[in-house]
Amino acid sequence: MELRDRLEELMSEYGLKTQQQLADFAGVSKGLVGQWFNGLTGLGAKPLAAFDKKTKFSINWLAEGTGEKYKKDYVFQLETEDKIRLPRINVEASCGAGSINDQYTEVVDYVVVARKWARDNLGSNLSRIKVLTARGDSMNPTIEDGDVLFVDEGITYFSGEGVYIIWYADGLKAKRLQSTVSGDLKIISDNDRYETETVSGEELDNIRICGKVAGSWSFNRF
After folding, report:
1. Helices (H), 91-170
2. d(Cα 205, Cα 71) in Å, to the nearest integer?
């Protein structure tokens, strides 16, 4: 994500429609804002101080695109006795042929849910839950393209039939795993248009289980 992308996100969040409005917000000239958007210069101390005072965004994220997007004190405000925040990471699991993701995962946002709902649906070890996005159609109708997946990253082994996030062959995938009486492992796509793979023997070492999907949220567009 480039500086202009981060600034556009800030502008959208705070209702700033033009570069002049952003300049007034940051206490700088419109010409300097134009240089930011054209990649000619970065954010200096004065605008960063203004953004730090007026927004929820971390100045490290705004300036360099590193670290968490939001300031820690803002994040802590999201979590209350009745609500819990679950980190959403910059990873997409392919429900298809496989998807290569960023080498280093980062928390890009938080999903805030009712604590009781989380305990009832995601289990008691909520600190192990990470949120990511599914891509592709191979797990239809169980998981649709764009669904939000709640993944227990503490389960890095086969713990019975279920949907897992695995690193296998050409990328990170969300697939159903099922064992056989002979000790083989079936990699199943719930969409019957895709073939089931059976992995056995030494090939099992090529599968890395990254977590087990505890549940998902779907969005239906009308």
Report:
1. 115-122
2. 40
Say yes or no: domain 79-217 is CATH 3.40.640.10: no
Angstrom distance (rounded) from CA 115 to CA 85: 9
- Sequence ranges of the domains in the chain: 3-75, 79-217
In single-letter form, the type of residue at position 121 comes to N
- Distant-in-sequence, close-in-space partners of 189: CB < 8 Å, separation ≥ 6: 95, 138, 139, 175, 176, 195, 196
Half-sphere exposure of 213 (CA within 13 A, CB side): 25
**Lowest pLDDT segment from 99-103, 137-141, 145-149:** 99-103
Rounded to a whole number, what is the distance in angstroms from the first to the last CA of the chain?
30
Residues 77 and 139: their CA atoms lie apart, in Å, by 36
- Taking the C-alpha atoms of residue 114 and residue 218, their distance in angstroms, rounded to an integer, is 17
Q: How confident is the model at residue 33 (pLDDT cuts 50, 70, 90)?
A: very high
Alpha carbon distance 170, 173 (integer Å):
9
Q: Return d(Cα 203, Cα 120) in angstroms, integer.
A: 36
Nearest 5 degrees, angle CA 167-CA 214-CA 93?
A: 30
Nearest-CA neighbor of 214 among 94, 132, 101, 96?
132
Residue burial 10-48, b: 16+ Cβ < 10 Å; e: rest: bbeeeebeebeebbebbebeeebbeebeeeeeebeeebb
CATH superfamily of 3-75: lambda repressor-like DNA-binding domains (1.10.260.40)
